[in-house]
Design brief:
- The longest helix is centred in the middle third of the chain and has 18 residues.
- The protein folds into two domains: 118 residues, Aminopeptidase (3-Layer(aba) Sandwich), CATH 3.40.630.30; 166 residues, Aminopeptidase (3-Layer(aba) Sandwich), CATH 3.40.630.30.
- Helix 1 packs across helix 2.
- The chain has eleven helices and 14 strands.
- By secondary structure, it is an alpha+beta fold.
- The model has no long low-confidence stretch (mean pLDDT 91).
């Protein structure tokens, strides 16, 4: 039966949409061997409604009560050059395959961007898919000032090479040999004393007040944001704190994903002084030890190529450049073009 395009209705977020959006995105993004983040109805209620920066702007297309296309922008509180600015993060740009090419998404995006601007968002950041990248860059003139990449460290070569090479048994065999050679030359630092953090409060606010001014462009990582993003989130994170003389010096947030069937340790976020390389190295050490203990094949983090952040990440032991990540900003956002000004992590992108 052909889809009935004339019967499609459009509108802002409704209570029944949470389950429908979850079904649409799960159906379209769940692929064998990949697990990045939660896509449940509870996740979308949390993401769209509980954000301390304000509710997301969402617009969907529906047919017979089922969501067939949806688009959202979630507000984030940024600091840009010493000023607080609300910037949106686009997310969940999906259209059911049976309805693609019929203008549904164009209508949804127009409504969302108009409403987001009315809500006081100065602009938005985008991590586009392969298909939406040319739309944002060529049609809408979005800027790509940041060359975002993954920096990684391989912990178990066999599963990594098995996923890369065919036949898989050959990759595993080569990986075992490569792993043995790597162990001969690797130097593993002693485990760092860190403690699990279950909640964020005054200590986290004090830490961000101390270190935040060192980052000219960053999401404001105060206790309210961290509590919402990593504690209230229906997904699961490991949150570790590093103390020195009883004083909280750094925070690192970790997660596990599955990519091409390979278990990956993700450095999702961190908070520490921009010049405190000792604390940063110890946080990454803690992430590596955490991943090794859980049998992850590799551990990785976002970085921005040719910046102080990239040098810092490589110096802490995540040296392998794995792949690129497209990261765009909308035209007219001021003060965000300098890659060296940014504190940017995977947690900012919402994909993990």
């Amino acid at each position: 039966m052909e889809p009935r395009f004339d019967d499609v209705t459009f509108g802002p977020l409704e209570d029944a949409d949470f389950a429908g959006i979850s079904r649409l995105i799960t159906r379209m993004s769940d692929h064998r061997g990949i697990r990045l983040r939660d896509k449940s109805e509870a996740y979308y209620r949390w993401m769209y409604l509980a954000n301390p920066a304000g509710p997301a702007v969402v617009h969907s297309a529906r047919l017979d009560g089922e969501v067939v296309a949806s688009f959202a922008v979630a507000p984030k509180r940024f600091q840009v050059g010493g000023e607080r600015v609300t910037v949106g993060k686009t997310m969940d740009m999906f259209t059911d395959p049976a309805f693609q090419g019929k203008g549904l998404m164009a209508r949804c995006t127009t409504e969302v961007f108009d409403r987001a601007e009315e809500a006081g968002m100065a602009g938005w950041c985008v991590t586009p898919s392969v298909h939406s990248y040319p739309i944002f860059t060529r049609r809408w003139g979005y800027d790509e000032d940041l060359h975002v990449i993954y920096r990684a460290r391989i912990l178990r070569y066999a599963p990594v090479l098995a996923a890369m090479l065919k036949p898989a048994w050959l990759g595993r065999a080569i990986g075992r040999v490569a792993g043995g050679v790597a162990r001969l030359f690797s130097r593993t630092r002693a485990p760092v004393e860190v403690e699990p953090l279950e909640d964020f409060g005054e200590e986290a606010d004090r830490l961000w007040a101390e270190v935040g001014p060192g980052y000219p462009v960053a999401i404001v990582r105060d206790a309210a944001y961290l509590q919402w993003r990593y504690v209230a989130n229906p997904d699961q994170y490991t949150i570790l704190g590093l103390r020195r003389d009883g004083h909280l010096m750094g925070i690192v947030v970790l997660a596990e994903t599955v990519r091409r069937g390979v278990r990956v340790g993700e450095v999702v976020d961190f908070v520490c002084g921009v010049d405190d390389d000792t604390t940063f190295r110890q946080l990454i050490d803690a992430a590596i030890h955490h991943s090794r203990a859980r049998g992850h094949a590799l551990v990785q983090a976002w970085s921005i190529r040719s910046t102080a952040l990239d040098r810092r990440i490589r110096g802490a032991g995540l040296r392998l450049r794995r792949t690129d990540v497209k990261f765009l900003t909308s035209p007219g956002l001021r003060g965000m073009a300098d890659p060296d000004a940014w504190l940017l992590t995977q947690g900012d992108g919402n994909d993990v």
